[in-house]
Amino acid sequence: MPLHLYNTLTRNKEKFEPIHPPFVGMYVCGPTVYNDVHLGNCRTFISFDILYRYLKFLGYQVRYVRNITDAGHLEGDADTGEDKISKRAKLEKLEPMQIVQKYTVGFHQIMDLFNVLPPDIEPTATGHILEQQEMAKKILENGFAYEVNGTIYFDVEKFSKLYNYTALTGRKLEELYENTRELDGQDEKKGRLDFALWIKAKPEHLMQWNSPWGKGFPGWHIECSAMSTKYLGEEFDIHGGGMDLAPTHHTNEIAQNIAYCGKSPARIWMHTNMLTVNGQKMSKSLGNSILPKELFTGNHPLLSKGYSPNVVRFFMLQSHYRSTLDISEPALQAAEKALQRLLEAYEKINTITPSATEQTEVIEKIRLGCEQAMNDDLNTAVMLSHLFELSKMLNAASDGKVSLGKNSLQLAKKIFDDYLIQICGIRTNEQQSSKTNETISKLMEIILEIRREAKEQKNYALSDRLRNKLSAAGIQIKDHKDGTSWNIL
Question: Is the peptide bond before 22 cis (omega within 30 degrees of 0)?
Answer without folding.
Answer: yes
